[in-house]
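Hi F.,

I've been meaning to write this up properly since the lab meeting, where we talked about keeping a consistent format for the predictions we share between groups. The idea is simple: the sequence comes first, exactly as it goes in, then the structure tokens exactly as they come out, then a line or two of notes. No screenshots and no reformatting. I'm using this chain as the first example so we have something concrete to point to.
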Amino acid sequence: MKLVFATNNLNKIKEVQLLIPEHIQLLSLKDIGCFEDVPETQLTIEGNAIQKAKYIKENYGYDCFADDTGLEVESLKGEPGVFSARYAGEQRDANNNMDLLLKNLDGNFNRNAQFKTVIALHLNNNLDTFTGICEGEITITKQGEKGFGYDPIFKANGYDKTFAEISLEEKNKIGHRGKAVRMLVNYLNT
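Output, unedited:
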């Protein structure tokens, strides 16, 4: 089976590739000749995942899945949420995003947060979604060199290290994207 993962984010591709069984050949957008920005104009994480999957199916004809992920901070009423990648501006700079989030949380004792990933699968003209959530908290400072995005400031519940301080395998085991991908794989195996 061939499936397109509708992303240009090499870090996401690396994470997901570790979880997909060998009988599923994962294709990137580059592999199918898609070099334009896939639209993400919806106001929800779910909406963006669905929009991206539909776009690839309608414009390229491939069965595919797309994800969208957001960091939702309780005391900021769910911010940055669907705008996580561009929280500090359209340049999508992870350090700027983290700096702004830490600034907005300065002096706030409620640092509860969750990462949420929604995967939309467009397969055989059916559309299904899978949601993975990882609850945790935002740290006071950046810690760790691994991972990407907000990983240096997010600690999962029950862990004393940020996502940027643990291995990719451990992150996949407990993280939001890993949970959503395992649901996707279970669905594909049935």
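Notes:
The first strand starts at residue 2 and ends at 5.
The CA atoms of residues 63 and 126 lie 10 Å apart.

If this format works for you, I'll send the rest the same way.

G.
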